[in-house]
Design goal:
- This protein has 150 residues and is of the alpha+beta class.
- It is built from 2 helices and 3 strands; from the N terminus they run ααβββ.
- A 3-stranded antiparallel beta sheet has the order 1-2-3.
- Strand 2 and strand 3 form a beta hairpin.
- The mean pLDDT is 85.
Length: 150
């Protein structure tokens, strides 16, 4: 009769079946007294909460950046529209405002107001933007162009 295979000795209180591939018994989520482990899965919930915080902070940051960019686009459209209108101020109010409107539209803006006072042109431009999906806002800017007063 061949000798029986030797069972590995226990090290640190761990015997056979304690490795990566051991099967789980129904009591594996319990402490030695038989009570359920109340902290099981706590790290998963913490990680999900932390991920949600990162998503919310990122969304808020993107909304703030979109607002700043829209304000800058509105300022550029108003400045260029006022300059374009001032180049045609001698041709009359309608021509000056038509040029200002064209330039504002080319810069994704909408001309809200155009006032020609002599050789000066005052324009107000709006730029619509969406900081977060489902929420549309408007950035407004006003610019004046004309000869230097002295």
């Amino acid at each position: 009769m061949p000798p029986r295979p030797r069972v590995p000795a226990r090290r640190n209180g761990r015997g056979p079946g304690h490795g990566r591939f051991r099967s789980r018994s129904p009591d594996s989520g319990r402490d030695p007294d038989g009570r359920a482990d109340g902290e099981r899965g706590g790290a998963t919930i913490l990680l999900l909460a932390l991920g949600l915080v990162f998503v919310l902070v990122g969304t808020f940051g993107a909304a703030v950046a979109a607002t700043g960019m829209a304000a800058q686009r509105a300022a550029v459209a108003a400045d260029l529209g006022a300059l374009a209108g001032a180049t045609r101020a001698l041709d009359g109010d309608l021509t000056a405002c038509a040029y200002a409107t064209d330039i504002a539209q080319r810069n994704d803006g909408r001309l809200v107001d155009c006032v020609v006072d002599g050789l000066e042109v005052l324009v107000t431009v709006e730029v619509a933007f969406t900081p977060v999906p489902g929420l549309t806002r408007v950035a407004t800017s006003t610019a004046r162009a004309g000869p230097v007063r002295g």
